[in-house]
Amino acid sequence: MKNNNKILVIDDEAYIRRVLELKLKKRGYQVMMAKDGEEGLQVIESQQPDVVISDIMMPKLDGKALCVKTNQIKQERSFLTIIITARINPEDRDWIAEMQDTLFMEKPFSPAKIVETIEKYLRDQG
């Protein structure tokens, strides 16, 4: 099953990137990877992914700063952002709720649930 949807996974933990990459490629998605928010932002600007999966706690540019920057991009071109993190506090829930097309999933997360969420979003966009 091949499709043209591009998904970017941004996480400083290689095994999380790998788990998501395998699950998403199995579903036919084009998967791109970034190990920190700065690298992720460059990929978002150059490759225009349909979905971004990002951790909050990352070096160089954390998930919140990344979301604030990409929220500007979303004014021109909408895409889904899924924030994954092990530690969420009420302030994080507040800013995530204010971001356009941004959802939160707690670690440990279910790769199947992430795929289901992505597929629903892409169906609703089409």
How far the N terminus sits from the C terminus, by CA atoms, comes to 18 Å
The overall pLDDT average reads 92
Number of domains: 1
The largest pleated sheet is described as:
5 strands, parallel
CATH superfamily: Response regulator
Radius of gyration: 13 Å
Q: Strand sequence of the main sheet, in spatial order?
A: 2-1-3-4-5
**Helix and strand sequence:** EHEHEHEHEH
Describe the structure.
With 126 residues, the chain is of the alpha/beta class. The chain has a single domain, classed as Response regulator (Rossmann fold). The protein is 47% helix and 21% strand. It has a five-stranded parallel sheet with strand order 2-1-3-4-5, sandwiched between helices. β3, α3 and β4 form a beta-alpha-beta unit. α2 packs parallel to α3. The model has no long low-confidence stretch (mean pLDDT 92).
In short:
The protein is an alpha/beta fold and 126 residues long. Helix content is 47%, strand content 21%.
List the keywords.
5 strands, alpha/beta, 5-stranded parallel sheet, Rossmann fold, 126 residues
Blueprint of the fold:
Layout: E1 6-10, H1 14-26, E2 30-34, H2 37-47, E3 51-55, H3 63-73, E4 80-85, H4 90-98, E5 102-106, H5 111-125
Helix pairs in contact: 2-3
